[in-house]
Amino acid sequence: MTEDFNKLEGDSSIESPVQSDPNAALNLIQDTMENFIATADVETVYKEPIEHGEALIIPTAEVVAFMGFGVGYGQSSGEDMDSGSGSGGGGGGHVFARPVSVVIASPEGVKVEPVFDMTKIALAGITTAAFMFSMIYRLKKQVKQFD
Amino acid sequence: MISNDTYAGRPIQFGNRQIVPFSKRLHIQIPGQWGFVLWERPVSLLVTEEDGNEDIVPVIDFTRYIILGLFGPIIILWLIMRKYHR
């Protein structure tokens, strides 16, 4: 057991680049943020054109990306074993895209065909219906109480 | 920091036509580089014909408008409810 502990203690000398250089963590955050920002670009919104017979098809999409980070540091000024300090950080993000329309360029002209996201529309419809029924019910209840 | 800028994409040559796509980017940056929100969506296309005729074709997101149209009555009903509650 003591040997294992010594082994672990010996391993503590191995530090990650982030531990050895505090600026490395900030650089890592900066790089990650730049990579995320690069995902929402004109080239991402308008995809690579596809040739289909005499027509050229360009799919379009909207892109939403968000990210957040946080770091913290604290220290105690107790005596002997109680004193110490620590720091930590974390972050997360998400990127998602939704098709908006398809641009069709043909010898006759350029037209935009919309893409309907039926899942989103159905979910919004169900939510609206649920809210409306609940509100009408509450409204009727209040009117009855008022009478 | 909040910015809402329009960006032009790479021109696409198709036959005698040139198509330039445009997109709009809403960028909300939390001060101190601790986070951000990005929303990039297509807005329009600039179509230039061989004779120099230019035409702007809008890219409309019908799904977004339908969803906003559905949530509109909820807000109206909620406002009526608040009035009754008072």
Output the helix-strand order of chain A: HHHHEEEEH
> What structural class do you assign from the helix and strand content of chain B?
alpha+beta
Beta-strand percent range of chain A = 35-45%
Number of helices of chain A: 5
Low-confidence stretches of chain A: 1-15
Main β-sheet, spatial strand arrangement of chain A: 1-2-3-4
What does the model show?
The complex is a heterodimer of chains A (147) and B (86). With 147 residues, chain A is of the alpha+beta class. Chain A has helices spanning 2-11, 17-20, 22-39, 42-45, 118-146; strands at 50-52, 55-76, 84-106, 109-114. The longest helix of chain A has 29 residues, at 118-146. The termini of chain A are far apart. Chain B has 86 residues and is of the alpha+beta class. Chain B has a domain at 2-60. Chain B is 28% helix and 50% strand. Chain B is built from 1 helix and 5 strands, in the order βββββα. Chain B has one helix spanning 62-85; strands at residues 2-8, 12-14, 17-30, 35-48, 54-58. In chain B, strands 1, 2, 3, 4 and 5 form a 5-stranded antiparallel β-sheet that branches. Chain B is flat, with a radius of gyration of 20 Å. The chains are: A alpha+beta (147), B alpha+beta (86). Chains A and B meet through helix 3, helix 4, strand 2, strand 3 and strand 4 of A and strand 3, strand 4, strand 5 and helix 1 of B. Strand 2 (55-76) of chain A pairs antiparallel with strand 4 of chain B, so a sheet runs across the interface.
Summarize the helices and strands and which ones pair or pack.
The complex is a heterodimer of chains A (147) and B (86).
Chain A: H1 2-11, H2 17-20, H3 22-39, H4 42-45, E1 50-52, E2 55-76, E3 84-106, E4 109-114, H5 118-146
Antiparallel strand pairs in A: 1-2, 2-3, 3-4
Chain B: E1 2-8, E2 12-14, E3 17-30, E4 35-48, E5 54-58, H1 62-85
Antiparallel strand pairs in B: 1-3, 2-3, 3-4, 4-5
